Amino acid sequence: MRVNAINRVYLETLSFSDLVRLADEYGLDVPDSLDRRFLIEELIETSKEENSNSDNMIVTSQEDDIPVPDEEKLPKNYNETQINCVLRNPSWGFVFWNIRDTDMLEIKSIPGSSLMLRVIAQKDLFSPETEESFEVKTVSSVQEQYVLLPQDKKYIKIELICVAPGYKKILSISPVITIPQGSSYVSDLQ
To answer: For labeling, which of 106, 107, 151, 183 is most exposed (least CB within 10 Å)?
Structure first.
C-alpha cells in the first residue's frame, strides 16, 4: 500500500483506517484521539523527510585490487630505551617502556639484576627536588604495568631502573605528568 508520491489529494481520498495502516508502514505511532487532518499532515511530513534522506544518500561499491596482508604485527622492540606514563585516573598511572637491545644484554649480563620503576613526586613541574619516592618491582618479560600514584601529589615522573646487589642504574625517565587537583571528584578517587 506504500506509495512513493504521497500528496494531500491522494491522502484525502483514503479512509481513516487506511491512513492508520499507511502511518504504521511509515513507523508512526497513531494515538486513538488523533484527528484525521493531523494524521494526514504527519504522513506528508514523514514522506517528505524520507524522500529527502534517500535523495542525499549515495551508495557506491568498489573492488580493491590491492592485496591485504593476512597479519601485520608491530615489532616487539623499537631498539630505543624509553618510559612513559599515562594517567588512568588521578590515583593510577599506566606505565609502559621499551628497552634497547644493547641495554637488555647489559641487564641480563649482571647477576641478580631486575627492573624496577621508581615513582617520584616532585615539588613543582621543573624542580628536580623530590617530595616522595618509592620503587615498584616489575616482571622483566612485561613492558607495561599499572602503578598506584602517591596521594595528594601534583607532579609525578617515573624512572626505569636496573637494580642488582651493589648496582643501580637509571635506564630512562618519563616526562613529568601533572595530576589534576582540587576537584571533590578527584579527592574521592584518591
So the answer is: 183
Q: What is the pLDDT of residue 109?
A: 93
Low-confidence winner among 10-14, 33-37, 183-187 (lowest mean pLDDT): 183-187
CA separation for the pair 2, 161 (Å, rounded): 73
Which grid coordinates belong to 157? Answer: 615522573
Q: Give the tens place of pLDDT for each residue, 142-164.
A: 899 999 998 888 899 999 999 99
- Collapsed DSSP state (helix, strand, coil) of residue 169: strand
Residue 3 C-alpha from the chain's centroid: 45
Question: Would you say 20 and 30 are in contact if contact means Cβ atoms under 8 Å apart?
Answer: yes
Mean pLDDT of 58-80: 68
Residue reference for cell 505511532: 29
For 135, the grid coordinates are 620503587
What is the C-alpha to C-alpha distance for residues 54 and 52, in angstroms, rounded to an integer? 6
Average pLDDT score over the chain: 83
Here the cell at position 166 is 651493589
Q: What does the block give as the cell for 119?
A: 615513582
Non-local (6+) Cβ contacts of 19 within 8 A are: 11, 36, 39, 40, 43
> Residue for cell digits 623499537?
78
Averaged pLDDT for residues 77-96: 90
